[in-house]
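Dissemination and training. As part of the outreach component of the grant, students in the summer workshop were shown how a complex can be specified as a set of sequence lines and then modelled as a single object. The example used during the hands-on session is reproduced here so that future cohorts can follow it. Participants entered these lines:
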Amino acid sequence: MIKAVSPPAAKTSGYRIETRTRASHAVTAVASALVIFLAALPSFAGRGIIEELIFVFYMAALAQCWNLLAGYAGLVSVGQQAFVGLGGYLLFALTIMAGIDPLAAIVLSGVLAAIFAVPTALVVFRLRGAYFAIGTWVVAEVYRLVFAQFRQLGGGTGTSLGPDITNTVFGIDWVKSMFDVRAPAARDIISYWAALALAVGTISLVYFILRSRLGLALGAIRDSEDAAESVGVDNWRVKLTIYVIVAAATGMIGALIYLQTARISPDAAFSVLDWTAYVIVIVVIGGIGTIEGPLLGTIIFYLLQHYLASFGAWYLILLGALAIAVMLYAPKGLWGSVVGRYGLTLFPTRRRLVVQKGALRSYRQEA
Amino acid sequence: MAVWANALIQGILLGGLYALFAAGLSLIFGIMRLVNLAHGDLIVLAAFIILTIATWLGLDPFAAMLAALPIMFVAGFALQHLLLNRTLGRDLLPPLLVTFGLSIIIENGLLELFSADSRRLHGGAIETTSFALGPDVAVGVVQLLTLASAVAVILALNVVFYRTALGRAFRATSDDLEIAQLMGIDHPRIFSLAMGLSFIVLTIAALYLGMHANFDPTIGPQRLLYAFEAVIVGGLGSFWGTLFGGIIIGIAQTIGAQLNPEWQILGGHVAFLAVLVFKPRGLFPRTTD
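and obtained this result:
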């Protein structure tokens, strides 16, 4: 099995394994400052900006999730809308039927989505490659059709969250008095913080998974499934772990999205276009298999949507054409092109061998 | 009893339509492992082209379909030649994403050109003609013609595949691309011809799509799923398997609908997943991945 290299032992033998780079030290500082700034934003930004940023945060989180799944674990799923919709419906069920606080329900939806993901994985993991892609899509359709059967949740037409639920979310009184706003704006601020937490959380999750033992195993699988298996990586188990973690995160994001919109229907919640196609386009435009790529892709997608969405069908035609163009001319995405040219990484996950001065000579003498 | 017999017969006939949706997909998936996510939208596009030709020239849908065939063959050849051949390789993602993009472009292009209104291809008297097979079981002529066309298309594809030089090249590239290249097969051209052939088949499917029920620009992805289910249930590389797979999905849908009208689509999906749990490679696989 792969063992993490323990720093003290490594130091005496004259080399270290490093993942950090000089750029990444600066990034840690800038990113921390940025997160603090974003967290404080509601005290001076208007409601419009807050709502736009909620969208940016959850799309960025979804993009990170899909990237972890497809870019690192090789599980090209076209059915992640299954977990977005599941999370949304679980939030509605938990708050409407069980009377649970919406914020607690977001976390609980994630846990339940992970539980649902296990039997789902047992079915779709029977399939590989293209079959897996189609299989996940069909499973998402099954989820959509099954949730359309629940009369208590509005059946095929869907249902809404009443103000009795959305206006009693945890901390809303504090936000109302703190920022001196009315209930709807206070609700947005709480959703905003939750979305920020989820976006930062998924980025950190992906970063720490990739730097952990699990990340090493993923890298080995990506390079060669057979070779990974031969050095003791349990491919099936590693992929299942990633699938379930991603399902939990995706479920929480879905729950948040539908807490924010306060209205759910099977067709919207399980939409392949909104929750998978756009996400794939974001990841691929930005650069699959990197942490920076999906973030860059989200910003580009947001700008396109912000300035061009009023063109309706033409906007979508442009988006489709852009996806095709990127795949043909820059298959590693925009960030991939940056890495290829300048070797820049902001979130370093690659392990580099750093040999200390003189270590090589002393090693030779010993030998 | 009669209702179940009726559900079974209607399911088999519906399966003929799904087999037609699936045959073109089976062809290209079998030869070049290309996952064409735009296949459903291409069928809808073909239906709109047939509709346009029928309206402009005042033809009936069958004649309009024949007129559309050469256009669609050239379109398929060009699509593969100019775009899709550049995405093929070991990686699954490029063709997936390019055809996804294509699907979005076609759907929204059709919405711009034709609006979201439902259309239908009107075939005249045969639309309403049916035979009574028993007191409670009736079979529509269009439905019967669909199944007959599906069988004819499968037969024709088998003849092309196993009796012609082109079919030999198809099978060779499907079995082993590298060896086929060594034997002097110009595989980009073979792939382009295969896509052209696939477009011919999907144009025939489009005719029956338009005569069976209303269609609008947004229904493509659902048809794609039925088609893929038929291909995967039948097994990779077997055209008869695809026909059989289509019939299984069709029967599962009509039986689901018989149990509860809202369960029609669900029935097909559940049958698909059930087959995959027990036979992940489908029922009659001929080639391996």
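The interface with chain A takes residues 29, 33, 35, 37, 83, 86-87, 92-94, 96-98, 100-105, 107-109, 111-112, 221, 225, 228-229, 232, 262-263, 265-266, 269-270, 272-273, 276-277, 280, 289 of chain B (CB under 8 Å). Students were then asked to discuss how this feature might be tested experimentally.
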